[in-house]
Each structure stands twice: as structure tokens, then as C-alpha cells.
Amino acid sequence: MLILGGTGEARALAAALDAQPGVEVISSLAGRVTDPALPVGQVRIGGFGGVAGLSYYLSDEKIEAVVDATHPFAATITAHAAVAAPDAGCPLLILRRPGWRESGGDRWTRVPDIVAAAALVAAGPPGTIFLTTGRRDLAVFAGDWSHDYVVRTVDPPTGAQPPRMTLLLDRGPYSVEGETALLRQHNVSVLVTKDSGGAMTMAKLAAARGLAVPVVMVDRPPLPVEVGVVETVDAAVQWLVSPGSAEG
Prior knowledge:
The chain is an alpha/beta fold. The chain has two domains: 2-98 and 221-241, 3-Layer(aba) Sandwich (Rossmann fold), CATH 3.40.50; 108-218, 3-Layer(aba) Sandwich (Rossmann fold), CATH 3.40.50. The chain has seven helices and twelve strands.
């Protein structure tokens, strides 16, 4: 089977399946992170060449099932898999951890995409923006000269960037204490993040809540409606026992 990976859930699924007799697992990583955490078992790194390339790979490698356990914002590969898997006659499941939910004291504004987030920030009062949306989304903030930006990424960004930017290269997990100290150190007035879900980077939300810092939360892109979706590794393993049993 093929796991479209890059997340903690994908690595956990690969480990769970590696212990199953008679199951051969291949994990595919996009290759956008310099030093990724690798799952157990076979690993391939790099793109497939669009829908046609993925469909050919599934057929050529005789893949019998596909689990898309990519990041919730990896919309392109998810869309490609939704077309390529049926074309190759492969059952397909999406494994996505639940998104974050507001708690008492949170000051969230949800926006549909990163462009809307940039427009909302640019229209706001001067201040320091803590931007944790990834290095590939910086260009939409490049025209904002009214705000200071603290940008945290795993790898150094390339391309257009906010003109007044402090770059932090770091990788989670993070603690509430550390995130609180960071927000105070940089006098952050707004946190901008994506609804990635999971515990690894959730501490920043608790820190923002404690300091009454507003949060601009970018909603996830919609999932293909015709594909089954589960939220846990155990449910994905169960689906492999009875493919097609997941609810959409």
C-alpha cells in the first residue's frame, strides 16, 4: 500500500502497518523539508508528475490501497489522489487529524484562505504579526510595510517576503511557556496561523489565549466529497482490513 505522508499520523500509520504480516508499505514524501522525519519501511521522496504520473505509479507498482495522510493544507496532492486512485482502480482513504476548536477566552477570526488573512492583517492597526503559516505563503504579505513580522519556518524561505521581517528557524513541538515568552519578547499583536490541528504546534494558541492576543485562523481547503475520511490511525488500519468502510 502507499501512504502519502509527511505528517506524524502518516509515520504512526507506517509503523502500525509495518508490524502487520503480509503488508508492504511505501511512504511518499513531497521533499519540501530539508531534513524530514522519516517513517519506517520504504520511502520515496519527490513528486509524481501530476495526476497522470501518480496514476501510472499506482498501476506500475501494483499498489492495492492508498492512504492520503498529508498535511491538511496539501490540497494539490489530495486533489490529484482523488482522481488518480480511482483511475488506477485503487481504494483511497484520507487520514486527517481534527482541526482546532476555539476555547473560552480565544479571540479568533476565521478566514477562508491565506490571501484573506493577508488582507485582514494589512487593514489592521500597526503592530507585530507572528506568522506561522509556512515559508511558501510569505509572498502575499510582501506588500505590507505597515507591520513588523515575526516569521517562523522549518527551512529558510525563498522568494518575496514581508519587508520588515524577523525570521525564526525552528521546528516543534513547542511549549506554552516558550510560546508565551516569544509573544512577549516580540510584543506580538496578532498571530496568523493555519488550522493544521494536532498537539505539536497548538501551544501558540494557548499562549495567545493567555495574553489576549487575537488570532487570524486560516480554514482548511475543502476535501474531495467522494473520498472516505477518518481522523485516527486506528480507523485507517481498520479501513485497510475492510476497504471502503470509512465514512465520507
